[in-house]
Amino acid sequence: MSNAVSRWLTPAQIKTNVLSGLTTALAMVPETIAFAFVAHVSPLTGLYAAVIVSFITAAFGGRPGMISGAAGSLAVVMTALVVQHGVEYLFATVVLMGVLQVLFAVARMGKYIRMVPYPVMLGFVNGLAMVIFFAQFSHFKVSGMDGGMQWMTGEMLATMLGLVALTMLIIYLLPRLTKAVPSALVAIAVVSVLVASLGLETRTVGDLGSIAGGLPSFHIPQVPFDLETLKVIFPYSLILAAIGLIETLLTLNLIDEMTNTRGQPNRESLAQGAANVATGFFGGMGGCAMIGQSMINMNAGGLLRLSGVAMSIFLLSFILFASHWIEMIPLAALIGVIFVMAIQTFEWGSFRLFGKVPKPDIFVGILVAVVTVFSDLAVAVLVGVIVSALVFAWEHAKEVAASTYLDEAGRKVYKLKGSVFFASIANFQALFTPHDDPEQVIVDFQHARVVDHSALAAIDALAERYAQQGKQLSLKHLSPDCRALLGQARELVEINLLEDPTYPVADDKLG
Fold first, then answer.
1. Does the structure show a pLDDT above 80 at 316?
2. Can you give the pTM of this predicted structure?
3. Per-residue pLDDT averaged across 39-66, rounded?
4. Is the domain of 15 the same as that of 30?
5. Residue 490 belongs to what domain range?
6. Calpha distance 157→225 (Å, rounded)
7. Distance of alpha carbon 298 from alpha carbon 182, whole angstroms
8. Residue 214 resides in a domain
9. Where residue 497 sits, what CATH number does that domain have?
10. Residue 96 and residue 506: Cα distance in Å, rounded?
11. Tell me, what's the pLDDT at 220?
12. Quick one: 295 and 434 in the same domain?
């Protein structure tokens, strides 16, 4: 190891990141198995995906400390595909999903995730925190006499709740005494020893399914390589690629804000795409960044690549060597860890924003959170961005205004201010009174901006209104793009090379 690397990885950092990886790996097991069941695949299909995706993205991705794996947001999309066509089609879909994500990275489109408005980010975080929190309640159900699932009752429920509460209490209180080891890891160990020593009857990881297995082996998806197969898998691949990238890059942005650092979205997208291609060829269900496990890792001090690499190695070792012991861990302990993580992930400070930020921002944040809970992440973010854009357009449409005065020559001058674009055209047109204006009128755009072709059409229409009244209209301080794109009003522009602005206009005719 070089001196530079030695300085980078101190013994304290190695210990902290390895232990945080172990804690995250333990919390990853029940989540991954649960998501595998949602997708109608075996637990090992989910665990192999977690091992491969987490290792590749941790080692080569653009956000150290972020944890990736088999995510629930992807699992719900996979269900219909697996039920209708089988798991082999899922493997082929995951490979194509990875290819699409690699193309996204090669096109260097990761930077556009930073255009997602902050209220959408806030809604995304709060929505996912609620999804993760409420998803744990499924573990409080057991098989009934009729074969269906029913809620726990009596002593079983009391034991489960007591162990969850004890886990959460240890996680919250232990850091006040020592931070030498992750409190979540200590909580899991204490609760596991307590259950074993007292012989308590409670659900364990093994109740979700066996995690014993060997190394993942290379496997070409057993599907026909023809156009019909592509027609089946491409829509799923596209949706999965989009959801995976959105969740990953939003999580990356969140960690950037928490750590006051800057990740590399294109590099992360490339690593995730390569990871999904690999996991598709090694019998995994694919994956993306997981905000819950990322928060567990970071709260335990895992800020380096080592934590994610260690997590994947520990997870693989569970499958190969320690499945018997891992299956003995009480589910209550892991549920307690995830409850704490969800509570810490939720942006409680967002409630303090009521009355302090614009109401549309509050609405967008709540809307995204609700859609995330009841639909899926991709739809939620898309809805949030569209609503934010419409709100932005509406607010800016109201800002176009004009002050008027008569100059020395008796000409009426309209001095515009604001942005003239498709949403503000009605307000723009209402500013002018051709019938009442004098014979000569000047429209000054020095403090206004013409944004799109709709605005240019409105300027042409304004010129037509004054022409019908037999009055002379002059336009000042328009950019060269505006002059080039104007129709009949082009000859009315007063050109001043020193004062005219040079902004571009959103129009295909110049491109």
1. yes
2. 0.70
3. 93
4. yes
5. 399-510
6. 51
7. 10
8. no
9. 3.30.750.24
10. 34
11. 95
12. no
